[in-house]
Specification:
single chain; alpha+beta; Ribosomal Protein S5, domain 2; Alpha-Beta Plaits; 7-stranded mixed β-sheet; 3-stranded antiparallel β-sheet; 10 helices; 10 strands; binds adenosine-5'-triphosphate
Amino acid sequence: MTRSVSRTAPGKVNLYFAVGPLRADGYHEVASLYAATDILERVTVSAGEQPGITQSMSVAPGSPVDQQVVAGAFDPALVPLDESNLAYRGAAAVLGEKDLSTTDIAVNLHIEKAVPVAGGMGGGSADAAAAMKAMNAYLVEAGLATSELPLERLLELAAPLGADVPFALLGGLAVGAGVGEKLTPMEIPEGVEPLRFGFVPSTSGLSTPAVFRELDDGRAAGRYPAPDAALEVPRDLIEALTTEAPLANRLPKIAALLRNDLAAPAVTLLPELELTLGSEAAKPQVAASFVSGSGPTVIKILF
Ligand code: ATP
């Protein structure tokens, strides 16, 4: 019998991203406010023929990645279907926790991409999270494990895979401390009108390490403001996102409190971003336009 299990995980936007100084270990402390988008990565684990894990990929029709494909701006070579793939690493982490190796099973991981690649929306991280959830369920279905790992354990296994992987498991709205992996979920009470996002994928990608490097170099040269002494997501922003007043009344405050320390370095590396940000912000249905994480996808908050 062919078994297959699919799970999804969301791409993210950072509504707030304050970056501390470069640490000795090469990472940065951040104060991040993550919001999940309704753009979902889907990973399917299905029974294969040969021992080991094979991988395949497709593009979700109508998704932002599909827009990039249509614009001739999607390079599948950017997503390596090998052991460095974050979906593979997520699946392998779950297997390891069950004392199984990748040759103890015979499966294919199919990744359906919807989140722009190298776009600052954590698409690879979402693949890792979706693969962890799918493999977790698959092992039980295939009789290779008696129970699923609890979410708390998945979150611990996720952190070493990347700062954004724990949030991709959790979704919703959350404050991220540490390098972004120490999460405090923010409850959005029922009845609170959610933000509506629009996405303008770029025709080129930006490398996250390169954008952080530009920030560090630019700070050292006085081109960007020095890091804040205390890294904190403003309470006012969280309150504006989680209170029941009509969204239209809350949007000006939300727009004024958005922040991303990586935006200026991203614009330095990809100057045409400034044009996109300006032209999107000028549209009547757009309350704010900004770069998420290291960019270059431009995110719009819609009225
Ligand atoms: P983040 O904002 O989390 O830093 P991003 O959204 O800018 O990341 P991703 O699409 O997650 O960028 O991928 C960045 C790089 O990670 C890619 O260029 C690719 O080399 C590598 N990668 C590994 N696995 C994947 C995957 N499943 N999907 C996309 N990229 C992957």
